[in-house]
Amino acid sequence: MRKVILSILALFFLVSLSTADQTIKVKTSGGTEKIQAIGKDDRLSYSLSELQSVLGGDLKWRQPGISVAYNLDTARFVFTIGSPYITLNDTIFNLVVPVTVVRGELFVPAATFTPLLDLIRPENISWDGSAKTIRVNAEWFNITDINISAKQNGLLIEIFMTSPLNFEIYESEGNWLNIDFPEARIDRAKILSPSNRTYLRKINAFQFDASAQISFRLRRGYKNFHHTYKTNPGRLQIAIESESFTADSSLVGSGRIGPDEKIDVIVIDAGHGGTDFGAIGRHKKTREKQITLEIAQELAKMIRKDKQFKVIMTRTKDRYVSLNQRAKIANDAKADLFISIHCNSSTKKSANGHQVFYLAPAKSDAARAVAQFENAPFLIDESGLDKNNENDLAFILNDMIQTEFITESADLAYMADLEMRKRLKIKSRNVDHAAFFVLNRVYMPSILVESAFLSNKNEEKKLRSSSFRKKVATSIYEAIKRFKAKYERI
Ligand SMILES: [Zn+2]
User: Fold this and answer.
1) What's the gap in Å between 66 CA and the centre of ligand 1?
2) Do 132 and 175 sit in the same domain of this protein?
3) Is 255 part of a structural domain of the chain?
4) End-to-end CA gap in the chain
5) Does the residue 107 lie in any domain?
6) What span, in angstroms and rounded, lies between the C-alpha atoms of 108 and 114?
7) What is the whole-number distance in angstroms between the Cα of residue 354 and the centre of ligand 1?
8) What pLDDT digit, counting tens, does each position of 63-109 carry?
């Protein structure tokens, strides 16, 4: 019974996270997308975080809780929460209605903000107040459609374009096939809705400032692929050679966890370490890297006593481990669960509470801010990337958000939140989701636990006490057991 209640609870949270009080439409040639909106008439405002997924660009906090920047093409918007004044490059505009943050998402007034988008973009963008619709003129797209068909010896993917475009195709771990188009403007709505998805686990389509990317995660492995450009109509054909892509209805909806059906190998990831200190306590200069390791070791001890589990730790001492290495350790071990342990931090002294995250594209700006902080080591140490190029970061974070384990990860996150509520006696900031690099590279259900705030005097004190850390570890351990009981099929 308890299990039933829990899963209903989890479902409820999942649904409530994704609903605002109303929606507006974004109409492109490829179809119509709905985005969240609040207020009415002149005060009707829509979620810029969601419109970004149609237009591209990069949206992030400049100062958490205070101001937000949105870079789109060469334009830069800066919003101050609660103020109707915004800047577009160096010019100040009065939107009349203040911009607001609701449930962590930035909402901008439709009637006064949409014309500014039109000002800076080559396509026509207009706001139709009576139809509550943003219209994006179709002509602008040069990647217009997609078709996927199963052949006897493989799978044929066709991407339709208005003229021959440059592209680069490459494969990546987890059966992903990615195509970068340096000059593309992609009709996302169309690309994301091919009529035949049987052989795909997932399609992603991202519009960046000057380029676009389409990624496919195939359900099965393949020998190799080749590509060619065809005319009338103009299209890129990608032929994926594999006899296993034949009609097989049993493929649809087959879910599984980990490499086998047993849930027994648990990876515990103590956040940060070595030269990466993580957050620093405001009062006693406590280092996040040390607290995370202590909680991780406590948790490992508990799990090891329980003979039904095996524990793997990404680090057991104060040393630097890159986010890539952490993911590799988990993937190589064919682990069933990945738990990353952290402490939160904020410029606001009063910010407090515990919070559990799972991996999904960040919907809230607050969640995005946490992800940005935890992803920072990635920017520092991974080679081959321009550290100052924000687009590179956005690319990596958005690119290939793996969604295979979202349901399980969300469920585990709610279980951990529930257990933490029982024991920690500090505020719960609820479960949220964001694009954490370390979670995105592990192919298993995963969560990231922010135990409490090091930037909060009271909570820093708690984090320094072994009894509090033990409670954090116990909560996670109980959640792991609940998860096993619910999902293991033997
Ligand atoms: Zn951290």
Assistant:
1) 22
2) no
3) no
4) 21
5) yes
6) 9
7) 13
8) 777 888 999 878 899 998 888 888 988 788 888 889 998 877 899 99
For residue 383, report the distance from its CA to the centre of ligand 1, in Å.
Answer: 21
Q: What is the CATH number of the domain that holds 84?
A: 3.30.457.10
CA–centroid distance, residue 99 to ligand 1 (Å): 30
Q: Does residue 260 belong to any structural domain of this protein?
A: no
Q: At what angle do helices 288-305 and 466-487 cross, to 10 degrees?
A: 50
CA of 375 to the centre of ligand 1 (A): 9
| The predicted structure's pLDDT at residue 397 | 37
Report how far ligand 1's centroid is from the alpha carbon of 72 (Å). Answer: 29
Burial class (CB in 10 A: 0-12, 13-18, 19+), 194: middle
Ligand 1 centre and the CA of 349: distance in Å? 17
Report how far residue 192's alpha carbon sits from residue 145's, in angstroms, rounded to the nearest whole number: 9
- Residue 359 CA to ligand 1 centre (angstroms): 15
For 23-34, the pLDDT digits (tens) are 999 987 667 889
Total count of domains within the chain: 3
Helix (H) / strand (E) containing 429: strand 428-434
Indicate the residue among 104, 121, 139 that finishes a domain: 139
Shared domain check, 58 and 145: no
Tell me, in angstroms, the distance from the centre of ligand 1 to residue 73's CA.
31
Span from the CA of 463 to the centroid of ligand 1 (angstroms) = 13
Q: Is 469 left (phi over 0), alpha (psi -120 to 50) or beta?
A: alpha
Between the CA of 208 and the centroid of ligand 1 the distance, in Å, is 28
* Residue-level pLDDT at 223: 75
Neighbours of 422 (CB within 10 A): 12
How far, in Å, is the centroid of ligand 1 from the Cα of 448?
9
CA distance 311 to 216: 33
Distance 128 CA to ligand 1 centre (A): 44
- Predicted confidence (pLDDT) per residue in 158-205, tens digit: 999 888 888 888 888 878 889 999 888 888 877 887 766 677 788 888
Residue 341 C-alpha to ligand 1 middle, in angstroms? 7
- 465 CA → ligand 1 middle, Å: 18
pLDDT of residue 40: 86
pLDDT (tens digit per residue) in 296-349 = 999 999 999 998 999 999 999 999 988 878 888 888 888 899 999 999 988 889
